[in-house]
Specification:
3-stranded antiparallel sheet; alpha+beta; single chain
Length: 284
């Protein structure tokens, strides 16, 4: 029997105890907004899609999937797979780049194939995870593995299968985050949400930052002083975010200014990462 679905958790990470498709309301990293210390060795902190466990439901499945009786047994398998094959006793997340892949293999769970990966990171630590762990790793690893597999897929038929499954997961990731204003443009028939720009009643200069009740930026728009909640940064165009970074650079609260700039800069790099990922999964 298939258990009754539970209400979805409001989180950026998948919930293996529900069959519901989770809607997300903001984009944030798993650990930090800070930029990589050394871009040649470290990766940006890219969050996992909340519905990552549903990728590859059917060979031609469209996302978000439409649940019906035909997919319930597959959903049950997915839930069981993620619960029983995830590595839970160690932390798989890392901001260190993958520099070497030593093994890609196809295994089976309940007579269905899944892929495992092994290799080394830039700090000489080893990694070992499977597609059941995709939602638990820094998603920067996904693009790295796609690039590696594209270069070596002619050497091993397992690499072709692994590349296919990574691409399916990557498409789920892109669609999950398509509520972002810029990423939305990459999805057919998807309409971008409009930001909630609130008038500022206080006589405050543009570029002022507010901590409470919501971390916000005050700026000028159409001869009005308005404010933007930082949690809604994904609803603003890239050019606007770049202008806001410049605008807040002289705010007197150094710590607050640094945190806001880090968050906006991270958002811009997240978008760039997603767009590049889309290019990587479409190209043959």
């Amino acid at each position: 029997l298939i258990p009754e679905p539970q209400p979805p958790h409001k989180t950026l990470y998948h919930n293996p105890y529900t069959f519901d498709y989770v809607e997300i309301t903001q984009i944030k990293p798993f650990k930090t907004f800070s930029s990589p210390t050394d871009i040649s060795l470290d990766s940006w902190d890219i969050p996992a899609p909340p519905n990552g466990m549903f990728f590859n439901l059917c060979p031609k499945e469209k996302y978000p999937y439409q649940q019906d009786e035909k997919t319930k047994d597959i959903l049950y398998y997915k839930r069981k797979f993620f619960r029983e094959r995830q590595i839970k006793n160690v932390s798989l997340w890392s901001n260190k780049k993958i520099i070497k892949v030593t093994n890609v293999s196809i295994k089976e769970f309940c007579k269905r194939p899944y892929v495992t990966f092994q290799g080394t990171r830039s700090d000489n630590s080893d990694f070992n995870f499977s597609e059941a762990d995709f939602p638990l790793i820094n998603q920067s690893d996904i693009k790295t593995l796609i690039n590696w597999l594209k270069s070596y897929r002619d050497k091993n038929p397992d690499y072709v299968t692994a590349l296919l499954r990574l691409r399916q997961y990557a498409m789920e990731l892109i669609i999950d985050f398509s509520f972002d204003r810029e990423i939305c443009k990459e999805i057919p028939d998807k309409i971008a949400q409009k930001p909630d720009i609130l008038p500022c009643e206080q006589k405050t200069a543009p570029g002022t930052l507010i901590k409470r009740p919501h971390k916000s930026i005050i700026f000028s728009s159409n001869n009005q002083t308005v404010l933007m909640k930082l949690s809604e940064k994904h609803l603003f165009p890239t050019k606007m975010l770049e202008q806001l970074i410049t605008l807040v650079k002289h705010h007197e609260d150094t710590e607050l200014r640094r945190s806001v700039i880090d968050e906006l800069t991270w958002m811009l790099n997240f978008r760039e990462w997603i767009m590049d990922l889309k290019t990587k999964i479409i190209k043959p």
